[in-house]
Design brief:
heterotetramer; A: 560 residues; alpha/beta; Glutaconate Coenzyme A-transferase; Rossmann fold; 2 domains; ten-stranded mixed sheet; eight-stranded mixed sheet; 19 helices; B: 240 residues; 2-enoyl-CoA Hydratase, Chain A, domain 1; seven-stranded mixed sheet
Chain lengths: 560, 240, 105, 314
């Protein structure tokens, strides 16, 4: 017989409400510091000490973009004698405080998904044994585990505003909040929100009050980093060339309409070429109409030119609020007019409802495995693997999906054949400081060996990758029939890297005959035509003009 | 050397030169008995908009009062590196001061810069380097760019920079380097009366032609400048 | 800095009549290519000064492919390189050939 | 003497109107600014007159040392032109770079009738040859003022990516007139230098909106430091250059005195302002904080209404 660990026998009666009672006790302790649900910012640390218990699983919201910065400082300031050994379960390890918690002994164990700005320090702390690592996840994975075995006892979240009952308006950067609250509040956890302001009436209710137990008004708005703004002025001719190859060599033949873009400059170049090069190719209405995508400023010209029909977003982007509000036909907005993002839903959309993911990476090996890990940095996975993976549970057909499936398995029965998501790696053969994109052995493997990890941190597995695009051409891995062909197809677009120079020229030429590799000239593209004048916007200011003045870029991107 | 020291040495026959928070102005009697306008920057003061406009004012005022030479005494910091100065257009104030000195020099008021202390960057351009003859007083410490800043930008160690500085006068601070470049025309001998040396210079002023590039070539500090300028000039004059 | 010099036989003379052309700017990750029509018709020469040390093999491969593809006979290429990627180098070389083959002086 | 060098790419008609001055190379700027095909370069890249000093620092050279000088025609009339390449070592002045401009100005002084256009794009003195660069700037200022006193018109065009900083700002201050675009910046000390000296509280160099409203084209135009504000196209700068050449005259004492009055008045009027927005507010602009977002045409009419200029006062 299976014994429930939730049931506890006291004398002769069994109690099934141990979690509820513990939660009530925490709320009771915290309430002594609160007026209603409102706790003053100066009491935030005392609130932590009242509510959080040693060893708790705590979700300190840590998203990709927004940060509950006041609450992370408050938690960091607790007396480690009272609060210690916490198990942090949060998608983003972004602020220095997130790691300071481990240095102070407040936290001990970590399960996370993404650690961009802290990637070097997190690597050092893992080596130094400061952090007991659970696992590095993708967003959807971590969210899933919130409901199975990583359910938070306490969630410390961030919202734009709250009313006195505790209804929250999360604003355009809703991101992870609904997911975190769902998992916490409905499983006897305590939810504490920091808000930029307390108002009489919130613009819209993103989180109902009965899921929120305490509110702290912050002196300054929560921190949001503009992560998805790519200055068109920094786009190079090489990136324009790869973008042209992708549009003509992949978007067009597969007719890709539903897709997700990574955040690199190559995909920004694609976005900026749609209204110019794409228009010239007659592709408007045939490609790139439905996106799972943050509100990329670089997509503004395509939207304004009528290319895009609909975008669902993981988060928002600094400066895009007014533009989004004025383009509700395109974006998901609330009754108040502002963007409603939702990372869990958008990740799901990217996994199941998109026919293509295209993004860049730091390293690709001969099998097509790719990773953004270097030996000194562990940036985590974020969402790319959810986008850049074939969804084995997918059942609805679409033209690109079926076509890709057919290329992968031309002999199989059409009615039984699985389609394939197009998973495209795009990049230049050499990155910053002439570091090659293609390598024999990924740094991720070296790192896994050094850290004794059970799995190397692979961002996208080779068997999910369908195409690789570089300035040398497009490699279609779906058409490769064995591992040797696959390796030569990859070498064939690896240019002058060591991997590229090590190619079998004859075999690469044969692969080219079969369209496994398509060079710029095979696609009718002259590299000399890859010119910045082709970009629909060549500066941030141009984007502002395209938006009719609605886009308000953050100061660091301005030159006026 | 302090301002008082240099004034005493230069003008044994008297002067009414005042130092108002680093802005130096007044007149002085030369050995010849003639009067000279004296302006300058003292006490390693930074040259900002407030200082520059007063100095150019003194130069312009002197135009009405006769035709004596103008001596520019320099012991300054760099230009004042502040938000306010840049907001107000410091470049125009410094250029205006330089223009005033150049105009005077071209119109019968020969200008002599006397670099007796520190100076750098924009401050040096607007004062000493805007005169016809720039004199170096031993002990002067001009520094177009200081080595620590250079080390930061070039990512070279101080030691490496000092080593390189031995082989070329082209980048490192110091009076002797500026002499070699042709920027400083002459270094006075501090064992001899400065007043006498000034008198000798005034008696033998070169004409108002800028010959600093030729000087730099003669002294081996700037081997290309004069030749390149001359070649461009010739091409420009004969390309029609 | 590292210097390289490559001599190649070209299939044929580069088109056009222009004697010289220049393209590009020396900057981090960028380069300038000066091309001059000063060699016999079947010869091609490339003189390279690069800020990125240790890429001799890459330069060799890039320039060999370039000559095979464009046959720039009679041309001498002088390159000042600020550490450009091979694709940028290839692009600038191709741009230089296009420029000198244009009509003009 | 070596022959002049012609190598410019041929550009299609109308290209000047669609090409960003800010983005273009020095060579493209010159080719599109002047009458088509009219530019002749002096000491072109084939002469390989590179800096003799960069090899000491193991740094790459550029065949024209970061500046293109020569002659051409503007609406049929001859002009001398110098254009700095802001991407090569930040367009900084070195020995050879500076000497080319000096030679050009000396020739202009002798010709008198041929005006000089200077397309600035510079961070100031080139660190690796700081003494030579500083001195070159002093010589340029001297040569420019001598030329102007002889009657030569010198027009500065400022809209490059490296701005017009350091000694470049002083040279700009010596020009007969300036045209500036929104991305153009004019100052002596750069943002990072001010931040290093005064702290991030006084000047956050990463706050680009602050950098531009302090040093950028719009503030410079409103203060009267630049007389013409243009859109960021090469055609815009060509039109501005033509306009300014038609307006300016020889340099004389009256202009020098008028400049003293103009700058003293600026100090009196705005000397206590803490920020550009305070200056603009003091000028009577309602919602002065919105000036950075004003489109060019609206900004130009605002600037003209305020009417500050340095015409006949520089």
């Amino acid at each position: 017989m299976l014994m429930s660990t939730n049931a506890e026998t006291r004398g002769t009666t069994t109690t099934w409400r141990r979690g509820r009672e513990a939660r009530d006790a925490r709320i009771e302790a915290g309430s002594r510091l609160a007026r209603g649900k409102v706790v003053e910012a100066r009491d935030a640390t005392r609130l932590m000490e009242a509510v959080v218990r040693p060893g708790d699983r705590v979700c300190l919201e840590g998203d990709n973009q927004k940060q509950a910065d006041l609450l992370s400082s408050a938690l960091l300031a607790v007396d480690p004698a009272k609060v210690n050994g916490l198990h942090m379960v949060q998608s983003g390890v972004v602020l220095p405080e997130h790691l300071d918690l481990f240095d102070r002994g407040v936290a001990k164990r970590l399960d996370y998904a993404y650690s961009g700005p802290q990637s070097a320090r997190i690597a050092r702390m893992l080596f130094g044994g400061k952090i007991e690592l659970g696992a590095v996840h993708t967003y959807l994975e971590l969210f899933a585990r919130y409901f199975i075995d990583l359910t938070p006892h306490v969630a410390l979240i961030a919202a734009v505003s709250a009313d006195r009952e505790g209804n929250l308006y999360t604003g355009p950067n809703t991101e992870d909040t609904p997911t975190v609250v769902e998992a916490t509040a409905f499983k006897d956890g305590v939810v504490i929100a920091q808000v930029n302001e307390i108002v009489d009436r919130v613009p819209r209710v993103d989180i109902p009050a009965d899921r929120v137990h305490f509110i702290v008004e912050a002196e300054k708005p929560f921190f949001v980093e503009p992560l998805f703004t790519r200055d068109p002025a920094a786009i190079t001719e090489g990136q324009i060339l790869t973008a042209m190859l992708a549009i003509k060599g992949i978007y067009a033949p597969y007719g890709v309409q539903r897709l997700n873009h990574g955040i690199g400059f190559s995909t920004a170049a694609i976005e900026l070429l749609l209204p110019t090069y794409g228009e010239k190719l007659g592709l408007k209405g045939k490609i790139a109409s439905h996106f799972a995508l943050n509100p990329h400023p670089a997509l503004i010209p395509a939207i304004e030119s009528g290319w895009v029909q609909q975008i669902h977003s993981f988060g928002s982007e600094v400066g895009m609020d007014e533009y989004i509000r004025a383009r509700s036909d395109i974006y998901f907005t609330g009754p108040d007019g502002s963007l409603r993002s939702n990372r869990a839903f958008c990740q799901t959309a990217g996994l199941y409802a998109c026919d293509m993911f295209i993004g860049s990476t730091l390293q690709i090996d001969l099998q097509g495995n790719s990773s953004t890990v270097t030996t000194s940095r562990i940036a985590g996975f974020g969402g790319a693997p959810n986008m850049g993976a074939d969804a084995r549970g997918r059942r609805h057909p679409s033209e690109p999906w079926l076509k890709a499936g057919g290329e992968a398995d031309p002999q199989g029965s059409a009615l039984l054949r699985r389609g394939r998501k197009l998973v495209v790696q795009i990049g230049e053969t050499f990155g910053d400081k002439n570091v090659p994109l293609f390598v024999e052995k990924l740094d991720a493997i070296t790192l896994a060996e050094k850290l004794n990890l059970e799995l190397a941190p692979i961002m996208i597995y080779g068997d999910d990758v369908t195409h690789i695009v570089t300035e040398e051409g497009v490699a279609n891995l779906l058409l490769c029939r064995d591992a040797v062909e696959r390796e030569q197809a990859i070498r064939g677009v690896a240019g002058y890297t060591e991997v590229g120079r090590g190619r079998d020229r004859n075999m690469v030429e044969r692969l080219r005959q079969r369209d496994v590799i398509r060079r710029p000239e095979d696609l009718g593209i002259n590299p000399l035509d890859a010119d910045r004048s082709m970009l629909a916007a060549r500066s941030i200011k141009d984007l502002v003009h395209w938006s009719g003045g609605l886009y308000a870029p953050p100061s660091k991107f301005r030159n006026w | 050397m302090t301002l008082d020291d240099i004034l005493t040495c230069l003008f044994p026959d008297g002067h009414d030169v005042k130092n108002d928070n680093g802005v130096v102005a007044g007149s002085a009697t030369l050995r010849s008995g003639a009067e000279a306008l004296v302006i300058g920057v003292a006490d390693k003061t930074a040259l900002g908009v407030d200082e520059a406009i007063r100095l150019s004012g003194h130069v312009l005022d002197s135009f009405a009062q006769g035709r004596g030479p103008i001596l520019v005494l320099v012991d300054s910091d760099s230009q004042r590196m502040s938000k306010r100065d840049e907001l107000l257009g410091l470049n125009e104030f410094l250029a205006h001061l330089a223009k005033s000195l150049i105009y005077a020099d071209m119109h019968h008021q020969p200008t002599i810069g006397i670099l007796y202390g520190h100076s750098a960057a924009g401050a040096l351009l607007a004062t000493g380097l805007a005169t016809r003859v720039l004199v170096g007083v031993p002990g002067a410490t001009p520094a177009v760019m200081d080595l620590p800043s250079m080390a930061k930008v070039t990512k070279l160690s101080m030691e490496a920079l000092q080593e390189k500085a031995k082989s070329t006068p082209v980048f490192a601070p110091g009076l002797s380097n500026l002499v070699q470049m042709g920027a400083v025309h002459v270094t006075w001998n501090d064992a001899v009366s400065l007043a006498e040396q000034l008198d000798a210079l005034l008696a033998n002023m070169p004409d108002a032609h800028d010959r600093r590039d030729a000087l730099g070539r003669e002294r081996g500090g700037r081997l290309k400048a004069a030749e390149i300028a001359e070649r461009v000039r010739d091409l420009a004059l004969h390309s029609h | 800095m590292e210097d390289f010099s490559f001599q190649h036989r070209a299939r044929q003379r580069a088109g056009g009549t222009r004697q010289t052309a220049i393209i590009g700017v020396v900057a981090s990750g960028n380069l300038e290519v000066l091309v001059e029509r000063v060699l016999p018709d079947v010869e091609c020469q490339l003189e390279i000064k690069t800020a990125a040390v240790g890429f001799g093999e890459v330069w060799n491969a890039v320039t060999a492919d370039f000559v095979a593809r464009y046959s720039p006979g009679g041309l001498k290429f002088s390159i000042n390189d600020g550490g450009a990627r091979p694709d940028t180098v290839s692009l600038r070389l191709a741009q230089a050939v296009r420029l000198i083959e244009e009509d003009g002086q | 003497m070596t022959a002049p060098f012609k190598h410019a790419a041929q550009f299609p008609e109308g290209r000047a109107s669609t090409t960003s001055f800010n983005e273009a190379s020095a060579r493209t700027r010159v080719a599109l600014l002047l009458d088509a095909g009219s530019f002749v370069e002096f000491i072109g890249p084939e002469q390989r007159e590179v800096s003799p000093h960069l090899k000491v620092f193991d740094l790459p050279e550029q065949f024209n040392d970061g500046i293109v000088v020569g002659r051409g025609r503007l609406d049929g009339a001859p002009v001398f032109v110098a254009a700095q390449e802001g991407r090569f070592m930040g367009g900084a002045f070195g020995e050879v770079h500076g000497a080319k401009l000096i030679g050009l100005l000396r020739a202009a002084r002798e010709m008198v009738s041929i005006p000089v256009l200077i397309l600035f794009d510079t961070g100031g003195v080139r660190l690796q040859e700081a003494n030579a660069g500083e001195l070159a700037i002093a010589e340029i200022m001297r040569a420019m003022m001598e030329a102007r006193m002889a009657g030569v018109k010198v027009v500065g065009l400022i809209g490059g990516r490296s701005g017009c900083y350091g000694g470049g700002g002083l040279i700009a201050g010596c020009c007969s007139a300036l045209a500036v675009s929104e991305p153009g910046r004019i100052a002596v000390s750069g943002p990072e230098v001010i931040e290093t000296n005064r702290g991030v509280e006084e000047f956050d160099s990463r706050d680009r909106a602050l950098v531009w409203r302090t040093m950028g084209g719009k503030n410079r135009r409103l203060l009267g430091a630049a007389d013409v504000f243009t859109d960021d196209t090469i055609q815009g700068f060509r039109d501005a250059a033509l306009e300014l050449l038609g307006l300016v005259g020889a340099f004389d004492l009256d202009k020098l005195k008028a400049e003293q009055v103009r700058l003293a008045d600026r100090l009196r009027s705005f000397g206590t302002c803490e920020d550009a927005v305070d200056i603009w507010t003091a000028e009577g602009v309602a919602h002065a904080e919105s000036i950075p977002d004003l489109p060019a045409d609206q900004f130009i009419s605002l600037a003209n209404k305020i009417g500050r200029t340095s015409r006949d006062a520089r």
